[in-house]
Amino acid sequence: MEVGFSEMRNELQSQDAVWRRLQLDCQQLHTELLKIRDYKDLKEIQMKHQSACVQLTEKLENKNPELLLWAQSQEHQREELNKIRNHLYREEQSHCSEQERMKTEISDLTEELHQKEITIATIMEKAGLLERQLKMELEIKDKLLAKQQLLDFQYKVIKSENTHLKEMV
């Protein structure tokens, strides 16, 4: 786009230089016409000079609408480029914001996961302690049950001996 503007600027400068050169040429021709006023063909020279100036002016005037259209086109393209740049900038800002939001969300989720891992580890540790306590309690209850069964057996034996002794007495 900048190259297009540079080319347009160069073309305009070139056209301006041509226009100035033409003006200088016209002025020089006019000066020459004044110098040779005394000659018989002064009118003829003036006509040729005017005709040349008119032709050159017409050529420049014919180029002028083309240059204006081209300049308008360049202006329109510049506006479109600015719109695209603004849109791109907004999209880039939105993308950056979205990335930051996602980073924050990932960080929060990672922290939450870490806390859950700690909670799970704590629960597993407590479950291991409870399991050991239950095993110890079961062992104690098994011993007490065995002792109870032994006492029941001894009771029955003593009862049966007692009954036997009563019968004997």
Automatic annotation (TrEMBL):
Entry keyword set: Coiled coil, Cytoplasm
UniProt superkingdom: Eukaryota
Coiled coil feature spans: 71-126
This protein's name: DEUP1 protein
Record PANTHER family: DEUTEROSOME ASSEMBLY PROTEIN 1 (PTHR18875:SF5), SARCOMA ANTIGEN NY-SAR-24/CYTOSKELETAL PROTEIN SOJO (PTHR18875)
Locations listed in the record: Cytoplasm
Primary location: cytoplasm
Gene Ontology biological-process annotations: centriole replication; de novo centriole assembly involved in multi-ciliated epithelial cell differentiation
GO CC entries: centriole; cytoplasm; deuterosome
